[in-house]
Amino acid sequence: MLLFILRDSIFIFGPLFYLLTIRPTKIKLIQVIVLVILPFCLLLTYTSQLIAICFLFITASLLFYLFTKSIVAFFDVTVVLLISIFSDNLAQFINSQLTTNSYILEIFWFILCQISLSFLYKNCVKKKLSSLRFPFKMQLLLIIIGILTLGMFYINVFFIGVQDNKALTTANFFIQITYILLIVLAVTLLITNLNKMQAIQQKEVAQQQFFEYMQALEQVNTDMQKFRHDYTNILMSLKNYIEDEDLQGLKHYFYSDIMQVEKQTLFQSKIIGTLEKLEVVELKGLLSSKLLLANRLQQRVTVEIPHPISSVNMNLIDLTRVLGILIDNAMEASVEIADSVVHIAVLSTAQQSVVIVIDNVIHDTNINISTIFDYQSSSKGDGRGIGLANVKEILQAHANVSLNTRIEKQHFIQELQIF
Predict the structure, then answer these.
(1) Residue 375 belongs to a domain with what CATH number?
(2) CA atoms of 83 and 251, how far apart (whole Å)
(3) Does the residue 260 lie in any domain?
(4) From residue 37, how far is each of 7, 65, 320, 382 by CA, in Å?
(5) Of the four, 162, 170, 322, 368, which is 20 to 30 A from 177 by CA?
(6) Residues 27 and 152 both lie in one domain
(7) What angle do CA 314, 318, 322 make, to 5 degrees?
(8) 205 domain-assigned
(9) Could you report the per-residue pLDDT of 132-149, keeping only the tens digit for each?
(10) Which positions, given as ranges, span the membrane (predicted)?
(11) How many distinct structural domains can be found in the chain?
């Protein structure tokens, strides 16, 4: 009994650390042993198996949720328990087909199946799922499906425990195979529909961004036409000051009237020119709207795009969400500082990757970078600190994207690299 508890503990919590990409530190291992494994063993000894298993599922889910701050932990705990049950039944089935039954061989088949299925789940299924954005309701639905499947499997386990024979083991194994195939089919259809919905949503975002960019371009064109139409009158008004040699009046008229009137036109024209090398419409629309917003807030923003950028290897909805949050945070922090400038650079590297850098000045250089991505972690008051937590959650679904956050001489720098 102790051998099987030790086996199950290692091959449940080992895969959880692996699947959720959590470093198994000494503190975390002690927490798992003290808060989950030891109480589970006591419950298994002095109460029913059902109570012990329910406790194991609830405490493991909550503990790994605290480790990751992600609802994905609940789903992964469910999957690992399902893999463990299926591996156990597969090991029993293989062992029952052999001429000699051996607990050592049964444990070997269990370990082999557990490791193989965990590896396949992380590198095939989980990798595919990470590229999709699941609404909270769908995440909840998948967790409920997983829990119901887990319950179904344990009912079969308890049934075998009452009537243990070779024929029943075989029948139960094939029932589980059929049930898994049906669940996989249902989840596949669900994910396919979600994929189609997100593709439609991405097209809508692209169209909206393109529309905003075209509006800005049209406005610049209209303003430039007005400027060309009025330039004769402007020159005539300047002529009077020149003939009267009224230099002070000329300066005042030029800077207070002409420059103020045409400042917006010149600024919008500069935006269009700056973004010319950015060929990704969604990013062009986002940056143009943020630059126009900065102009209304009287916040200086510079954009540098030295080389043409034709594509980005990241879901554009997620990318615009992340950049929108980072740019908004940078402008919000800078607008309170006199003469501050937000610098944005979109760079391409020799390794075919794209690097987006956002640099803004800050007052407080004692910010704890390790905690600013946690929910409700903000110095701006209650109800704040959600944006960067959302950024962290979005980026966790993209293995080819990294965010480097640092502070250098009162400059808060966010460097997003997309491989």
Answers:
(1) 3.30.565.10
(2) 79
(3) no
(4) 12, 17, 43, 37
(5) 162
(6) yes
(7) 110
(8) no
(9) 666 677 777 777 777 777
(10) 27-44, 100-120, 140-161, 173-194
(11) 2
Residues 13 and 136 placed together within one structural domain of the fold: yes
Statement to judge: residues 13 and 147 lie in one domain: yes
Burial of 245: CB neighbours in 10 Å, binned 0-12, 13-18, 19+: exposed
Dig out the tokens for 82 from the structure.
């399902």
Range of the domain at 366: 278-419
Q: Which of 164, 198, 226 is the last residue of a domain?
A: 164
Compute the half-sphere exposure of residue 98: CA atoms within 13 Å on the CB side of its CA: 13
| 8 A C-beta contact, residue 216 and residue 284 | no
Contact (CB, 8 A) for 226 and 271: no
For the chain, the first-to-last Cα distance in angstroms comes to 49
Residue 101: inside a domain: yes
Of 359, 296, 362, the residue nearest 334 (C-alpha): 362
Which string of DSSP letters, residue by residue, matches 193-253? Answer: HHHHHHHHHHHHHHHHHHHHHHHHHHHHHHHHHHHHHHHHHHHHHHHHHHHTT-HHHHHHH
| Model-wide pTM > 0.90 | no
The pLDDT tens digits of the residues spanning 171-228 come to 666 776 777 777 777 777 777 777 777 777 767 766 776 776 677 667 666 766 766 6
The two structure tokens encoding residue 178:
């059929």
Task: Specify the DSSP class assigned to residue 402.
Answer: E
Strand ordering across the sheet containing 300-304: 300-304, 341-348, 354-361, 411-418, 401-408
* Same domain, residue pair 139 and 15: yes
The answer on 301 and 157 residing in a single domain is no
Q: How far apart are CA 7 and CA 4, in angstroms?
A: 5
Domain assignment present for residue 283? The answer is yes
CB-based contacts of 18: which residues, under 8 Å, 6+ apart?
A: 118, 122
Pairing of strands 341-348, 401-408: unpaired
- Tokens 């004769």 -> residue: 232
Q: Determine whether 353 is exposed, middle or buried from the number of CB atoms within 10 Å of its CB (0-12, 13-18, 19+).
A: middle
Final residue belonging to a domain, choices 164, 186, 214: 164
Determine the Cα–Cα distance for residues 359 and 357; give it in Å rounded to an integer: 6
Per-residue pLDDT tens for 233-292? 777 778 878 888 888 888 887 777 666 655 655 655 666 677 888 888 888 888 887 887
Residue 246 tokens read as 């009224």
- The DSSP letter of residue 47 is S
